[in-house]
Design goal:
Layout: E1 3-6, H1 20-23, E2 27-30, H2 39-43, E3 48-51, H3 58-61, E4 69-72, H4 82-87, E5 92-93, H5 100-115, H6 118-126, E6 150-154, H7 158-169, E7 173-177, E8 189-191, H8 194-200, E9 203-206, H9 220-223, E10 231-234, H10 243-251, E11 257-260, E12 280-282, H11 291-309
Parallel strand pairs: 1-2, 1-3, 3-4, 4-5, 6-7, 6-9, 7-8, 9-10, 10-11, 11-12
Amino acid sequence: MINIIALDGHTLNPGDLKWEGLEALSSFSVFPRTDRSEIIARAQSADILIVNKLVLDRPILAQLPRLKYICVSATGYNNVDLDFCREKNIPVSNVSGYSTPAVAQHVFAMLFALTNQVEKYSQEVHHGIWSKQNDFAYWHQSIDEIYGKVMGIYGFGKIGKAVADVALAFGMKVIVHRKNPQKESFEGIEYVDLEELFSQSDVLSLHAPLTDENKGIISLLNLAKMKSTSYLINTARGGLINESALRNALENKRIAGAALDVLSSEPPPADHILLGLENCIITPHQAWASLAARRRLLNDVVKNIEGYLNGRLRNVI
């Protein structure tokens, strides 16, 4: 009997999905969370491992001689030592594209939180502030309208394209910076260099994977190129932002605001440098995690493992 073991299943399925697709394939067991010190004991009998963010490096993998296949229940796979897996002929698969609609939705949820401040005004209404006003309408700072504004997109994969589609539907102008602008063209999209991206964007949304080349690309120098009325949104990777530079820009009103779903350290320490800033919205790395997105993710994990068991590998890294 093939043993399938999920070592950190909670983020994928905290209880609102069913594991029946995996249970139907073979012997299956799941641990909500696994500490590094527990991996060997729990994974010793595994033929197939499912991991999300748990690190499977060479020292760990070398102690799992029975392991034949790894399925990453995420798009990113830097938590798995691929060189070791190649040496030992252990295929590794991931899942991509499952979260595109959810992340695009979250981008605009955060943008509207910055521009319309719905939650803030709702709280004021419930606290009686509107009731004390002399007029039927009440606001205490200008409300931004995104129609006609420039949406800048850094990175133009599936999510970047979905964000562009929504931005165009709202009547925004869309400019994009990507590694290979000549790769493909899209109606309504203008490719620009990095300088233009920072200087022209009213909203700059980050959608690139983190690399050695772009780590900290949101720097003091590049933030200084942005409009004082502009907003920064990051649903990609926390490492794209130099967080001390961003704090400086926000405190000094160099940009109007930021909305972040990712940070350099997750979960962040209680004294994280960006916590407590009024013009910085932070959500807890949840843009990807809609019920529908996690259902798609789980279904693809099942299909990946089913493919492996039937000799038809899919989504191999």
